[in-house]
């Protein structure tokens, strides 16, 4: 992943609700907006479907942080897209993963993370945050471009589709049912939430 400074900088003009929100906070250029979002504490918002929840709760997850900046980029006509990726969650990346893998007999736990893409550069505005992980995610099993404010339901459906098409056919998942991965995923989400509090 690259720092947000790989993005082109641009003055924020009153081109939409996201731009107006940043301007109301005296944030008047794109890089400053990225820095503001990156420096906000990492946390799971109460309503990920609300595009302004990050400002109301003064924190955000990879989902809401990247939704805000991708939306602002669209308003400013900067060619930045939000992508989701499925990564291999293991003990080295997320402390406490091994018991889950052992319980479900999995080689790793396929989990969703999101990031921004400009040209061929990937940027994660939650990298370096207290986000439940021991380091950055640089390798993905599968990635796909999505809308900035993809709903939780649509993201879950995309995840299931990617599991069936791209993850389960892998040799290391031979004989493992999708329902096993989905049950383990719920425990993985609980673990990540718990790790943020530590």
Output the keywords:
198 residues; alpha+beta; 4-stranded antiparallel beta sheet; 7 helices; Transglutaminase-like domain-containing protein
Sheet of most strands: 4 strands, antiparallel
Q: Tell me, rounded to a whole number, the average pLDDT.
A: 95
The CA-CA distance between the termini, in Å, is 25 Å
**Overall helicity:** 40-55%
Report Rg.
17 Å
Number of helices: 7
Number of domains: 1
Summing up helix and strand content along with how strands pair, one would put the structural category as: alpha+beta
Task: Give structural notes.
With 198 residues, the chain is of the alpha+beta class. The protein has one domain. Helix content is 41%, strand content 14%. It contains seven helices and four strands; from the N terminus they run H-H-H-H-E-H-E-E-E-H-H. A four-stranded antiparallel beta sheet has the order 3-2-1-4. A hairpin with a 2-residue loop joins strand 2 and strand 3. Helix 5 runs antiparallel to helix 7. It is elongated, with a radius of gyration of 17 Å. The mean pLDDT is 95. This is Transglutaminase-like domain-containing protein.
């Amino acid at each position: 992943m690259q720092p947000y400074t790989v993005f082109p900088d641009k003055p924020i003009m009153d081109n939409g609700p996201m731009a107006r929100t940043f301007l109301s906070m005296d944030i008047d250029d794109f890089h400053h907006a990225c820095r503001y979002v990156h420096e906000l504490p990492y946390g799971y918002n109460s309503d990920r479907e609300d595009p302004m929840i990050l400002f109301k709760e003064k924190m955000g997850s990879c989902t809401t942080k990247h939704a805000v900046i991708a939306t602002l980029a669209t308003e400013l006509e900067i060619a930045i897209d939000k992508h989701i990726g499925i990564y291999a969650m293991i003990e080295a990346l997320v402390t406490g993963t091994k018991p889950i893998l052992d319980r479900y007999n999995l080689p790793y736990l396929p989990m969703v993370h999101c990031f921004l893409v400009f040209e061929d550069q990937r940027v994660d505005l939650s990298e370096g945050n207290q986000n439940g992980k021991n380091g950055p995610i640089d390798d993905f099993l599968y990635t796909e471009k999505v809308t900035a404010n993809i709903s939780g339901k649509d993201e879950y459906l995309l995840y299931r589709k990617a599991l069936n098409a791209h993850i389960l056919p892998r040799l290391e998942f031979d004989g493992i049912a999708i329902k096993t991965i989905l049950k383990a995923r719920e425990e993985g989400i609980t673990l990540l939430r718990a790790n943020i509090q530590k």
